[in-house]
Design a protein that fits this description.
Structural class: alpha+beta
Number of strands: 4
Order of helices and strands: HHHEEEHHEHH
Oligomer: single chain
Number of helices: 7
Largest sheet: 4 strands, antiparallel
Length: 176
């Protein structure tokens, strides 16, 4: 069930747990609004009918790296908090998430504004599961989580490398 890349990385068990949980939670069905006739709104967003909401599932690798899954009869809201070990990680992740949120229409399931306390959120409705393969949606979210860590780490290395070159160039002026 797990990919070879996720099984060998340090994130492996964390991502495997998320994959299994998402797969189990993807059983969404069409459910018309009980408030307004001929309307179908994601119940997890509306939150008006408590009986249609599932208990939220929080999967945390540590205090700073967590995954929240909120489900209802016709939708799932997936919120992710990315690892931030220092101030540079925090700045890079904030800028990167803002960049992605501005392009939310290209990702279909990405929400423009994340839930408070999380870096990025996805909204999957029953319409998404009808037109897309469920296992591909799960793969997309898990791969996204895997790649976001890699991207932020690469950006951090790049910034540190540039800072080192700038510092060396600056300090050489004092050595002459």
């Amino acid at each position: 069930m797990a990919t070879a890349a996720s099984a060998t990385s340090a994130l492996g068990p964390y991502l495997d747990c998320i994959r299994v949980t998402l797969t189990a939670a993807m059983c969404l069905q069409n459910f018309a609004s009980q408030e307004v006739e001929r309307h179908n709104k994601p119940e997890v967003e509306a939150g008006k009918n408590v009986e249609l909401l599932l208990k939220p599932i929080l999967i945390a690798r540590n205090e700073k790296e967590k995954f929240l899954l909120e489900g209802s009869i016709n939708s799932l809201r997936i919120s992710i908090c990315v690892k931030k070990s220092d101030d540079l990680d925090e700045i890079l992740s904030k800028k990167f998430m803002r960049f992605l949120a501005q392009r939310a229409e290209n990702f279909v399931v990405l929400r423009r504004k994340p839930i408070t306390g999380y870096d990025i959120s996805f909204l999957v409705t029953n319409f998404h599961t009808e037109i897309m393969f469920k296992h591909k949606l799960v793969d997309f979210i898990v791969t996204f989580m895997e790649e976001i860590d890699k991207e932020i780490s690469e950006m951090k290395l790049s910034v540190n490398g540039r800072a080192r070159i700038v510092a060396q160039t600056y300090l050489q002026a004092f050595l002459k």
